[in-house]
Design goal:
The complex is a heterodimer. Chain A has 15 helices and 61 strands. By secondary structure, chain A is mainly beta. The longest helix of chain A is centred in the first third of the chain and has 34 residues. Chain A is globular and about 115 Å long. Chain B is mainly alpha-helical. In chain B, the strands form 6 sheets. In chain B, strands 13-12-14 form a 3-stranded antiparallel sheet, with no helix packed on it. In chain B, strands 2-6 form a two-stranded antiparallel sheet. Chain B has a two-stranded antiparallel sheet with strand order 3-4. In chain B, strand 8 and strand 9 form a beta hairpin. The longest helix of chain B has 29 residues. Classes of the chains: A mainly beta, B mainly alpha. The interface between A and B is large, with 106 and 107 residues.
């Protein structure tokens, strides 16, 4: 074990430099603060406190082209810092200094207007929308920039878009909206995880989630704990020139969220609400009762002694099978998932302010039910944003946010992969049987059709009634999140500002599980049992920034920023459980009521990150732009010698449209070329991987006493260091025809080296895996965003946004040792058995589905028949699965070569005959949004699409296996190879069997649990989805104002209305096996997705 | 206004000052592990060393020694078979000698776990002697640490011995793994490993106390270490599947080519066993009642009186959770209907005792009805007969004998790895080999085992005369071990070291087909369900599918006996066996993939 002191010498030099740097920043800042606070330096002329005595009062209204008043438009007297913003009616008033020449009206997304002041007192201004507004302020790392100055690749989305077609999770709002951002809604359960990957992600074995920054503060939970209606805008930084400033955590991209704040003026109250319902989008077709009974008849075996007495007394003799009528079918998907699930959402916000104080207070409440009874999601959310201008130089802003989320119900996944709601739903028998008309005495324990719907467990199939099961299982995941942060901005001198941010986030997570008497697990445990897990995580974050901007000679712009940041995470967990309760009623309220108590558990984890960073921006004549950044990150996850990672970036842009020869072309309203290069880092591994740690286990050395035993976790790897991603980006931004068409194209090439990979090591070392900096990956892609203003007129507007992203990624290296280069490894997705069905391979992307290739089924002609023994044996030359005695109708795999079985006959073996049968990575994906408005109506139609990915529909394998009696199967098995003829006789004779199955299309269902993954279950996951259509109507101002409202809009939205796909499962957008990133795109027991319809209103008072 | 500004400035100054103070703290980016020990703060105290020792023992628990190793790995011999058909699961493929490298985690976990155990032992062997208390502690402290050392040596030897049993020549390391070390190592000649671990065991013998000197625990004591020494020495001396490591050629069943070495191993085995038998402290003796060995075990009590159970793996865990727990009685035991699990425990079995094994017992041998359970517990808590003599279960482990019953699959019942009767029979075997024929001591040892087996009829044994030649007496020993250790997972490995596995499998498969069509064996058995589960069922046999009178009116129930025993079912045991190949398993593919330097079994 390497001790700390061994490295202290080499480190202390570095430490001193940083210490001095940090101290000087603080001293510099503090001294300036003191000096300038007390000395009201008259030379600058910018610290005017009492403007009232020197100017005169003006007022006015700002509206858009459509005549709607605009809120929060900045009105500034040019050359001064005197300014204000418009109120909800678009009105403003202010006192301008006597020397003011020009008023500047600016608003995000609108063209800025400058108006000479002259003697005017009243200003009624109309602002035009500007799609490619170069003066738009965009959020970049630790600051803002004008879009004109941005060189890195980024995408943005405005909050207004979100309000139009509301969603309950903020992550849903960005699905398909921005180029390069891939979203996967993993399943249909309320509150289900939405995976967001930017440019494909870089890591193989670790989390690929981007870094989320909400109002300058990092948030681990990403978009989960922010109400969508509170979002002002979302900016996504994609290439290293913009993310390298975040160093450590920027490698997977950065998502910056700006929340809404208040603005000067009368208090405005907005109320947004909607309510609606969800319905199951699609059902899986299963065999009907007649088909079910017929198969159960056949499943009994060779029928030499005829069907069993039990079978006949339940389902009747063969000659009565035609009495099974489809009307008597129980459709379990209808029964359990068929009803409407209602949901509603209310948001109320009050905002306003004075010249010095702005505030916004919002509250939102979500209630969402799942398709499965007891499943649901609810959230209460409060947020207060307060901005206070203390002096003209000193600004104080703060954000307080509390959210409480509750996800109820266990969903479709039970305790293990072999036992989930869908198995119990799809395979539940559609009939209880009509009984035997010849002998109507019911068998013992027999039940009627109606009774079958209400039994807790179907004795004969061993399956559970999902409704009973869901009600018997209490499952709750409750999160309480309190985030407090504050920032002080101090304008030290002209162009030089100091910003200090501090934040605390406290998250409490509580997970509850209680299995009541009727729960199936109680049967195996012997009594009700319960479990509580409480997690408490605290995060402290502290940032100091010094920014300097200056323009020389109207040609040279510089912007320098230096900063320091410290992030400290503290995680605590406690877990307790109790089993063998005698009764249900007390439950989790008192764990001591259970008779048996497994050991309670607790953990404490801490991580620290200390960083220093700087950025320099220079532009010449707004034509040539340069940015360089450097960040140093020190992470507690590495030993001192490897602790610091340095992440630089450089970027260059050419604003060609500023050149006269381009201007003369009169084509481009904007043309810009960008080229960037940078390095970002990643340290997403668990703590203390560099050390040799021992975790606790037990050994019953003393007979009936359990003693603690210690076992080593892993071989220490003190050599662990930062993983780094080099990204290169080339981009073009162009606007044509007065910005009627705007196009952004980005090409990128990312390569990651020193990948932090949990890699297999020879287990003769005592350990199976070890974290190492081995391996490398590459991502390449093209992203295109097009925005067109198709029609602009006072009454009718039509805009289109289109984005598409092509990307390929590949693993370029895996584990490498002096004597060993790993080319590939297999991974089990664990959808059913531990069969390894995914492959990670050098030269290929992640998500290779691996298995056998189907080749239909064996026909009678593949066999020699021995009429005496009535036995079929495979003909010479016909490949069979190793160790199997095949018979006609068995599923057949393609023989891909390799070993024979010793006598020259080909053989199907796991080693030679499995291959890559699918690729989960899409070729491209994107979205198309059309916004139309006609007079007071607005319509938006949003379509998103994914193309070229495969999905492993593992449901299909399990639900077409006849591994247990009295279980139904998917209709996909219809046309199976049968041994029972029309008279109900079991046929073995080759000629009869051949004749009987001349139209067979499927194999005989396998009577074992699934044991293979094969290509039949791999399906094209491409889709085009009408994600949502919204129709809104805004009351004319004249009417709404009579109703004492400033704005009143009603709308209706339909989500997931239509999907065009070849996929046969519930929904091709699925990823149910997420234990490791190796196994994306598996559909197994995923919660079915729904269509939903809502109606709502937006009101402003 | 002014005062407010000053206040705020004062506040800011405070913030700055506090950040200053915490600056040093901020630069300290170490976050040492708080919830886990790390190697820095471990091996400071006796109790820490005890915890890591228990961690090495933990290797033996769930679920490799409670299920996989002692059932499927050790299955399909002349005593028993894995339940079910051919090779539809990894477990059956292993038992039926149909193993392939691709059997998945069920197969690979044994390989991985045993080496994890070797590593745990190696850490202790490295760190404990470096502890301050090891040289400067009190006598008691030093002795305690020495005991841990002895246990680490013994456990490592046992893990390596199992690895050799399953895979032959294997990688072997005696130092803890460190980063940067070359883990890509090939097999090492098993004779070199045996030499080392036998030396280790001889060293360990002197480090651990006798059973009676310490509290009863599921840990190795001196007698058990000596017993393991004897067992491992006999394996080192015996046959195993070997090939030329360099070429992969010349595959065959052979012993250590050095004849002197073989003799030395027999001598070591004999002496170690004799030390236990001749121990003046009387630490280990036979329990006079064979069934009591199992009742005590299942009652979750230590055998404090006789010490026949010389080493048990501790599986007790009252929660029914899997951690450190075992499946004894559940995967290897007598089935219990779900409805009565609360009263009878969660009995069940994944293995079946063979009909030929049942019939090989002498009718006076009390071990037969303990070892082979022809019955199960039905939903009314009655003892009822199982259908068909091919479906009988191992009877030594019965969950209703447990003091702490559980309805989970994990039973909290220990597993015995070494019994005193094994020591007696090992002694007799080695003595016979060394002296080219049985000595009086060898005969006495054998008779001790047989007298207990014929309890109540000891005179029969006293009158027994055994062959005086080496091979003849050895044959007697081989049979005795079959009857004594039925279901205990010894048989397959005994047969291999005697090079008898192929013969025995051929004979057993033929015998099973023969009794299937043996018309002298009745088709049905009619019996009375028995409310007292400890008492045998009243039964009569016949060929009629209807229960004859007067039994029918007395409440007799019918079960299949020979009826329905098909040729395919009778063909299941060891169906895939190939001599000179299946005496060792292939190396799991995951291990080969992670270590290409490791050579595969040449016939795979």
């Amino acid at each position: 074990m390497i001790r700390k002191s061994d490295f202290s010498i080499s480190f202390s030099g570095l430490r001193k430099i940083f210490l001095i740097l940090w101290m000087s920043v603080l001293l510099f800042a503090a001294s300036f603060l003191q000096v300038s606070a007390f000395v009201n330096s008259p030379e600058t002329g910018y610290t005017v406190v009492n403007t009232e005595q020197q100017g005169r009062e003006i007022s006015g209204t700002v509206k858009d082209v459509g005549g709607q008043p605009l809120l929060a438009v900045t009105v500034l007297a040019k050359g001064t810092i005197t300014g204000t913003t418009t109120n909800i009616d678009g009105k403003f008033s202010m006192v301008v200094p006597a020397n003011a020449q020009v008023l500047v009206f600016s608003f995000i997304g609108m063209k800025t207007v400058e108006v000479p002041v002259g003697d005017r007192i009243v200003f009624d201004i109309v602002l035009e929308e500007d799609i490619a507004n170069l003066d738009e302020v965009v959020v970049v790392g630790y600051g803002t920039m004008k879009r004109r100055d941005v060189i890195g690749a980024s995408s943005a989305m405005r909050g207004a878009e979100i309000v139009k077609a509301p969603v309950s999770q903020a992550a849903e709002a960005i699905i398909g909206r921005m180029a390069g951002i891939q979203t996967t809604t993993t399943e249909g359960q309320p509150g289900a995880e939405i995976i967001i990957k930017i440019r494909g992600g870089t890591s193989i074995s670790q989390d690929n989630a981007p870094l989320y920054i909400i109002d300058g503060f990092p948030s681990e939970d990403g978009l989960k704990n922010i109400s969508p209606t509170d979002i002002e805008r979302i900016d996504v930084l994609k290439d290293a020139s913009s993310t390298a400033i975040y160093g450590a955590r920027g490698a997977n991209g950065v998502v910056l969220i700006t929340t809404k704040g208040g603005s000067e003026g009368q208090a405005a109250v907005t109320y947004d609400a909607w309510a609606g319902f969800k319905r199951l989008g699609k059902q899986l077709e299963v065999m009907n009762n007649a088909e079910f009974v017929r198969f159960q008849y056949e499943r009994q075996g060779d029928l030499i002694d005829g069907p069993s007495e039990e079978f006949i007394s339940r389902y009747g003799p063969w000659q009565y099978f035609d009495r099974y009528r489809i009307d008597d079918n129980i459709n379990w998907q209808d029964e359990v998932l068929g009803s409407n699930a209602y949901y509603q959402n209310h948001n109320i916000a009050i905002s306003g302010g004075t010249k010095t104080t702005n505030y916004r207070l919002s509250y939102s409440r979500d209630d969402e039910n799942g398709l499965l009874v007891t499943n649901g999601f609810s959230r209460d959310y409060f947020k207060l944003r307060l901005d206070q201008k203390v002096t003209d130089r000193l600004k104080f802003s703060s954000n307080a946010m509390y959210s409480s989320t509750r996800i109820r119900g266990g969903g479709t996944y039970f305790s293990s992969s072999t036992d989930n709601a869908l198995v119990n739903l799809v395979m539940y028998r559609p009939t209880s049987g009509l009984g035997n008309p010849d002998d109507p005495t019911p068998v013992e324990g027999e039940i009627t059709l109606e009774e079958l719907k209400y039994v807790d467990q179907d004795e004969i199939s061993g399956l559970t009634n999902i409704e009973t099961q869901s009600k018997a299982e209490h499952r709750l995941r409750a999160t309480g999140d309190l985030v407090l942060n504050a920032a002080v901005d101090y304008n030290i001198t002209q162009g030089l500002t100091f910003r200090l941010l501090g934040g605390i986030s406290l998250e409490n997570y509580r997970q509850e599980e209680f299995d009541k008497l009727k729960s199936r697990d109680v049967i195996s445990h012997g009594g009700p049992f319960g479990f509580i897990r409480i997690e408490e995580s605290k995060k402290f974050n502290n940032t100091a920034l010094l920014t300097y901007t200056k323009t020389f000679n109207d040609l040279h712009n510089i912007n320098l920023m230096a900063g320091q940041e410290y992030v400290y995470d503290d995680f605590k967990m406690v877990e307790a459980s109790s089993s063998m309760y005698d009764s249900d009623d007390i439950g989790l309220a008192n764990l001591a009521m259970g008779n048996e108590h497994p050991k309670p558990q607790s953990r404490l984890e801490q991580t620290k990150l200390l960083s220093f960073f700087g950025r320099a921006f220079y532009s010449f004549d707004n034509k040539y732009l340069f940015t360089g950044t450097l960040r140093a990150d020190g992470s507690s996850k590495f030993i001192e010698a490897n602790r610091w990672g340095y992440f630089p970036s450089i970027a260059f842009a050419w604003q060609a449209s500023e050149e006269d020869f381009i201007k003369d072309l009169n084509i481009f309203s904007n043309l810009k070329f960008r080229i960037t290069y940078g390095v970002a880092g990643n340290n997403r591994i668990s703590n203390n991987q560099f050390a040799s740690t021992f975790s606790n286990s037990v050994y019953a050395a003393d007979g009936t006493v359990l003693s603690v035993a210690l076992i080593p976790n892993a071989t220490a790897n003190p050599d662990l260091k930062w993983e780094s991603t080099i990204s290169r980006n080339f981009g073009i931004d162009a606007s044509f025809f007065e910005s009627k068409l705007t196009a952004n194209v980005d090409l990128y090439f990312n390569s990651t080296r020193d990948l932090l990979l949990r890699t297999n090591i020879p287990s003769s070392s005592g350990y199976k895996t070890q974290f190492k900096n081995v391996g490398s990956t590459e991502n390449k892609g093209i992203e295109l965003t097009l925005t067109t203003r198709n029609i602009t007129s006072p009454n009718f507007n039509w805009n289109t946004d289109f984005n598409i992203s092509f990307f390929t990624s590949k693993v370029t290296g895996l584990n490498k040792e002096a004597k060993f280069t790993e080319e590939s490894f297999l991974q089990a997705s664990g959808w059913y058995t531990q069969v390894e069905d995914f492959m990670v391979k050098v030269g290929e992307p992640i998500g290779l589905i691996y298995g056998y290739v189907n080749d239909g089924f064996y026909t009678v002609d593949d066999f020699d028949y021995d009429p005496v023994e009535m036995k079929y044996t495979l003909k010479d030359g016909v490949p069979g699965y190793v160790g199997f005695a095949h018979k006609p109708g068995d599923m057949k795999f393609k023989d891909l070569g390799g070993a024979d079985n010793g006598d020259g006959n080909p053989q199907i073996t796991p080693e030679d005959d499995r291959t890559i049968i699918g690729r989960a990575q899409p070729k491209f994906f994107g979205g198309l949004n059309n916004n139309l408005s006609y007079k007071n109506f607005d319509l938006s139609v949003f379509i998103n699409f994914v193309y070229g990915n495969d999905v492993l529909n593992a449901n299909k394998i399990l639900y077409t296996s006849a591994y247990s009696t009295n279980r139904n199967m998917l209709a996909a098995i219809r046309g199976y190879f049968t041994y029972v003829n029309d008279q109900g006789q079991f046929v073995t004779d080759p000629d009869q069997l051949r004749e009987l199955n001349k139209n067979a299309t499927m194999w005989t269902p396998d009577r074992s649990l699934p044991r293979w993954t094969y290509s039949w279950a791999v399906e094209d996951g491409s889709f085009i989805r009408i994600n949502n259509i919204t129709l809104g109507y805004t009351l004319p101002k004249t009417i709404s104002q009579k109703l004492k409202m400033d704005n009143f809009r009603i709308f209706a939205t339909g989500y997931n209305l239509f999907i065009l796909t070849k996929y046969s499962g519930f929904d091709p957008e699925v990823s149910a096996r997420r234990g490791t990133p190796y196994t994306p795109g598996v559909d197994f027991s995923a919660y079915p997705k729904s269509k939903s319809f809502i109606a709502g209103l937006n009101i402003t008072f | 206004m002014k005062t407010r500004v000053i206040k705020i400035i004062y506040l800011l100054v405070c913030i700055f000052t506090t950040s200053f103070i915490s600056c040093e703290k901020m630069f300290n980016l170490d976050t040492p592990s708080k919830s886990d020990y790390s190697s820095d703060n471990l091996f400071q105290t006796i109790s820490q060393a005890r915890m890591t020792t228990y961690g090495t023992y933990y290797t033996l628990t769930n679920d490799i020694y409670s299920r996989t190793i002692n059932t499927h790995y050790s299955c399909d011999t002349d005593e028993w078979m894995s339940q079910g058909a051919l090779n539809s699961t990894a477990r059956r493929a292993l038992a039926r000698y149909n193993a392939t490298p691709y059997l998945g985690t069920e197969f690979a976990k044994v390989f991985d776990r045993l080496y994890a155990g070797v590593e745990r032992a190696n850490i202790n062997l490295d760190r404990i002697p470096k502890m301050d208390l090891f040289t400067n502690g009190t006598e008691a402290e030093k002795n305690e640490l020495k005991r841990f050392l002895g246990e680490a040596l013994t456990l490592r030897a046992y893990f390596m011995h199992d690895l050799i049993k399953f895979w032959g020549d294997m990688p072997f390391k005696t130092t803890p793994s460190i980063s940067g070390e070359n883990f890509f190592v090939d097999r090492i000649d098993r004779d070199i490993i045996y030499d080392q671990i036998i030396k280790d065991l001889q060293e360990a013998v002197d480090l651990v106390p006798w059973r009676k000197e310490v509290e009863p625990q599921a840990r190795f004591t001196k007698g058990a270490v000596k017993g393991m020494l004897a067992r491992i020495a006999l394996h080192a001396a015996g046959y195993s599947l070997r090939w030329d490591l360099a070429t992969g050629g010349n595959v065959g069943m052979r012993t250590n080519p050095d004849g002197e070495k073989v003799r030395e191993y027999y001598q070591i085995a004999r002496d170690a066993a004799w030390d236990i038998i001749n121990d003046p402290g009387n630490n280990h003796r036979l329990n006079p009642e064979f069934i009591d060995v199992w009742k005590t075990l299942c009652a979750q009590e230590f055998d404090t009186e006789y010490g026949e159970s010389m080493f048990e793996i501790g599986f007790w865990n009252p929660t029914g959770e899997q951690l450190g727990n075992g499946y004894i009685g559940n995967k290897i035991g007598v089935p219990v209907a779900d409805e009565v699990e609360t009263a009878f425990g969660s009995g069940g079995s994944e293995t079946r005792m063979l009909a030929t094994y049942l019939y090989s017992f002498d009718s006076l041998d009390v071990r037969r009805d303990v070892t082979v359970a022809e019955f199960e517990i039905d939903e009314n808590g009655n003892r009822t007969l199982r259908n068909r003599f091919s479906e009988y279960c191992p009877g030594k482990w019965r969950t209703w004998w447990a003091t702490y019953k559980t309805t989970s699959s994990y039973t909290g019942i220990n597993h015995i790895l070494l019994r005193y009767s094994d020591v007696l029979l090992m002694f007799a075997e080695a003595e016979n080999w060394l002296n080219n024929g049985p000595t009086p001591d060898a005969v006495t040892a054998l008779k001790q085992v047989r007298r207990r087996a014929f309890r109540g009829n000891e005179a029969v044994i006293d009158a027994e005369v055994y062959p005086a030649d080496k091979d003849g007496f050895h044959a007697v020993i081989m049979n005795e071990r079959l009857w004594e250790f039925g279901g205990e997972g010894r048989r397959k490995w005994d047969l291999i070291r005697w090079n008898k596995l192929a013969d025995v499998i051929t004979a057993t498969r033929a015998a099973l087909q023969a009794i299937r069509i043996d018309e002298t064996i009745p088709l049905y058995v009619y019996y009375l369900p028995q409310p007292d589960v400890e008492a045998p069922n009243l039964k009569v046999y016949g060929n009629s599918s209807t229960i004859p009178e007067p039994y029918l009116s007395q409440g007799y129930v019918r079960a299949d006996f020979r009826n329905g025993y098909s040729s395919s079912t009778a063909g299941y045991p060891a169906a895939g066996f190939e001599a000179n190949k299946d005496e060792l398993f292939p190396i799991p593919i995951s291990s080969i993939q992670a270590n290409p330097a490791l050579s595969q079994h040449p016939l795979y």
